[in-house]
Fold these 2 entries.
Entry 1:
Amino acid sequence: MVKNIDDNVGKLLSFLKESNLDNNTIVVFTSDHGDMLDEHGLNAKGQPYHSSGAIPFIIRYPNHIVGEKIIKTAYSTIDFFPTILNLMNATDSDTLEYTKTLPGLDASEMLYSDEKVVNMQDVTRYMASAKGKWATALTSQYKLVLPHKAQTPWLFDNEKDPDELYNYADDPSYKSVYEDLWQKLYTTMFKYDFPILYSDKGAALSAAVCVDERNTLIDDPSKTCKDVNVSMSNSDCELSMISDQCPVRCETCCEDSPGLLVLGGNINTCEDITPSLHCKLYIAVEHFCRKSCGQCDSTLAESLLLKPAETLMEPATSTSNAATLSSLANANILLLSCISIVTLLIAI
């Protein structure tokens, strides 16, 4: 596949040169998404990890963009439109007025500069699962991921941990980074109706008090909390090191979490919920509000199941998108595929 792409890109570049169009044509090589290829035990696309969401953006514009330039900044495909129009010196008043209504950033000045390496930390970009499974805010160094249900938020440091294996969300030294990205993501999610707000499983916007570790068990590295035996006889949870790692699986943590939940597009806390309704309807509530939902109290849990369900309005559906990319018409540009998030631009 790589050879096939390489050969055909070469043919396109050769054609431009033979036609005397190479010095006046902007060539962009990019892709629609990445692929996990079994990293983190996952396959395909649609994940918040770098391997899934990051794509290349290689641009060639002889006599305008210096070769071997690297821009280490979080960019998205919503930035393509204003950037390329400005590279082309678009002057049509209607076009220029339209670009002002788009949320994309214009990176043309950085591309035109003589600097070989540009690293802008203050640019924040956002991604969201179309199925409402997660939402993320990221810069060139950090990435905050809010999953649906009541899973723990993840904060990655791509400089210290490029493989995205460690969660720094609870690290005191990352407190200001976490709070800054959280506030930006919170504001953006509601401004643009991110799908996670309407997840049929609900979503926690804060870390839950009771969470099983994702790491392998200290007692048995071949297992995780999902493998823990919780049968009445010979329960693995009798070992304190396992019950400490797996408080949900072992039912040793039964507290309500003090943070925020979003259910059907509305912000809630555990004090706001109606247990007989929300605990059955949203998995996030069941995980986030364990005491209210009777997760460690079989009598309370049974009474909630037996209580008739109350009427609830259907969760609202998202009616707007965060951004729209318009097509380019009558432009002397060769764009080889696009979409997703761009974290690195290289000029050749």
Entry 2:
Amino acid sequence: MHGKAVCYMHGGNSPAGIASPSFKHGRYSKVLPVRLAERYAEAKADPELTNLEDEIAVTVVRLCELFAGTKVGEAVRSRRWQAIDRTMVLLKKLVDSEVKRKATLKQMLAVDQVMALLAALTSSIRAEVLAAIADEVQARALLAAIQAHVSRVLALPAKSMPSVEGEGSA
């Protein structure tokens, strides 16, 4: 069967994607139309995908427009006031989500920050051990034991940790 890894007798002739009778929403489908596949790839690569600032701004503008169109003495149960209520609830949800997103971003460390922290910590431990223990062989043994322990804790192979053999290695 052209375009399929199986023959027509073993599922290759079955409709796929939107043509399938079991198609619901397509979210987990392997078959995307070309125009959607390109947009999907762009959206997935967008680091600001979860940023809600634009949606908040649009919602604020919508709320202002709704208020501007309200007439003095208009019944609180009118459609306009119901729309204002719904828009205010939406605005609150968007703002809450954006606040949580920004708080989460502040709590996260980038890989280069973590690596710099580990390098500083490793350097400090090495310097303190070498300064505190006069016997260099004993100091190197202690540094090797520390390295092995850290490797076990981090579940890293010992080779991926900086060597304790030379002063200059880090």
